[in-house]
C-alpha cells in the first residue's frame, strides 16, 4: 500500500487541506498519523479512486476552521509545533501563554496583575452567592464583573487581547475566596520532592523555542528564572484559593504542569463556542464567559468533577471493584476514562500521573487512583484521560470540590483567547449551515 502526504492528496483531489480533513471526519477518506504524531498520510489508491469518482455530491455542511495554534497528534497536543508534554515538564504557565498568544517574551514574566477595582467588585458580587458554590460557577460571576469594570475590553488587537488575558486570568484567581492556610504541607518533602526535577516542571531545559528564547524551567522564554513558583505566579495564587494546605513545592510544580497541559486542545467544544463569539467581535470577557458556559458540561471540563466524586466514593483501594461494578450495572459512564480523539490513550494523563507519583510517592490518594485504573484495565475499559489525572491532583492536594474544573478553566482561558485572536484577525462571522431533515417547505 502506498501512502501519500496531505499536500499531495489535496493537490490530486483539487481541494484545500481543510476540505481533505473534512472528508476524513465524514468517513470519505482514511488517514494514518506519521511517527511524529503530526503529519497525516493517505492511501494513494483511495485518493485516486475518489479523484476519479469526483467530489462527494451534496455532502452535509461541515465546519472546518484553519488554525495555527494547536495540532493534535496520536496521543498529545502540540502548541505551535512544540510538544505540550515537553512544555509541561520544563516551562512555566505564563511562558506557555505568551507562546500560544504569539506575543513578546517579556509579557510572560510573572506576576500577572488584575485590576484592583474589578477584583474588589467581583469579590463583593459573590457575597450573596450560596455557600459551597463550585469555583466554576463563581468564575461566571467574576468574569462578568471584571468585564464590566474594564474600559479596555473593546481593544481587539493582539497585544491588547494578551494584556486583557493577563488581567482576566489574574482576576479570576485573585477574586476567588482565599482559604486560610492550616496544617502541614500537602505532602512531606522526601524522595519524591527530590526527584521531581527529573520529571516535573521544575526540570530545566536549554532547548530553545522556535524564534528564540528558552522555555526552560525557572523562567519565561529568554527571561530570568526568578519567580517560577513564587507567590506571584498564577499556580501559586491558585493553590491558595483551592486548598487550605501549605503549598508543597512538588505538588505546586504538578499544578503548574497541569495548567500547561490544559492550556489548549484545538477545537474542543468550549473553544469552538469561544471562536463563534469572537467571530462576532464579542470582547474577550464575553468570549471567555461563552466558553465557561460550555466547559462545565459533564462531557467536557465537568468530567474532572465527576472523576473527583468517583475517587471520593471509592475512598479506599479495596472499594474500587464494588464502586465500578455498581456504576457499570447502572449503565453509567465512568468519568475520566477514554477520549474522543486519543483512542489509544491520553499521554497528558500519563505525564501528570508520572509527575504526581514522584511528587507524593505512597500517598493514599495515589493508591486509590491506581486501584481505579487497575479495575478499569481488568474490565478492558478505556485508559484514563487528563480529567482523571487532574482529579487525582486535587485529591492529593486536599482541594475543594470542583477544583479540577477551576484549574481547567484558568488554563484553557489562554487557549480561548488565542483562538479569539485568530477570529479577530479574520474579520468574518462563523456561520455554519444546518443540514435540514424536517418536512418539505410548503
What does this structure look like?
The protein is mainly alpha-helical and 442 residues long. Mean pLDDT is 86; it is low at 188-230. It contains 19 helices and eight strands.
Strand content: 5-15%
Oligomer: single chain
Contiguous helical run count: 19
Instruction: Categorize the overall geometry.
Output: globular
Biggest sheet overview: 3 strands, antiparallel
Radius of gyration, in angstroms, nearest whole number: 22 Å
Question: What's the arrangement of secondary structure elements?
Answer:
Blueprint: E1 3-5, H1 6-13, H2 17-25, E2 31-33, E3 40-43, H3 44-53, E4 70-72, E5 77-79, E6 82-83, H4 84-90, H5 93-101, H6 116-125, H7 135-148, H8 158-174, E7 182-185, H9 191-199, H10 234-242, E8 245-246, H11 249-261, H12 269-279, H13 284-295, H14 303-314, H15 320-329, H16 347-359, H17 364-378, H18 386-396, H19 403-426
Parallel strand pairs: 7-8
Antiparallel strand pairs: 1-3, 2-3, 4-5, 5-6
Give a quick precis of the structure.
50% of the residues lie in helices and 5% in strands. By secondary structure, the protein is mainly alpha-helical.
Key phrases:
442 residues, mainly alpha, 3-stranded antiparallel β-sheet, 19 helices, 50% helix
